[in-house]
Design goal:
Layout: H1 3-22, H2 32-43, H3 47-54, H4 60-69, E1 72-73, H5 74-94, H6 99-118, E2 121-122
Helix pairs in contact: 1-2, 2-3, 5-6
């Protein structure tokens, strides 16, 4: 791989890592898809950065499980859906005032819920 392409991949992976981290705190900004993109860019450019990202105690195993067998653990499903729905409901109550934006937000949450629940639940090996 050329040095320029490698640098572009590292910068792109780092950008998506930052977006995924921000997504923890911002409603409807996805975390896991950005971490998946981070993994994709890092695995193609820097084994060290890939291993470091996959070693993250909060998201590394989630991303690794998804990459390896397209499954999501029950705990991850519960936490992600609880955080998403809580933030959407609180945002709808305290921040949004236009009904159509609230409806749109709730429709997006329904779609994301369906999407998350459509993946198999990872069986615990522990």
């Amino acid at each position: 791989m050329g040095n320029t392409k490698r640098i572009i991949y590292i910068v792109s992976g780092s950008f998506f890592l930052v977006l995924g981290t921000i997504g923890i705190f911002v409603p409807l900004l996805p975390t896991t898809p950005f971490w998946l993109l981070t993994a994709w860019f890092y695995i193609r450019s820097s084994e060290k950065l890939y291993n470091r990202a996959m070693g993250n105690r909060y998201f590394g195993s989630v991303v690794k499980d998804f990459i390896e067998d397209k499954s999501i653990s029950l705990r991850t499903k519960i936490v992600s859906l609880t955080v998403m729905w809580t933030s959407a409901i609180l945002t709808s109550i305290f921040i949004l005032s236009q009904w159509w934006i609230i409806v749109l937000l709730l429709l997006i949450c329904i779609g994301v819920t369906w999407h998350i629940l459509s993946f198999p639940t990872k069986r615990s090996d522990k």
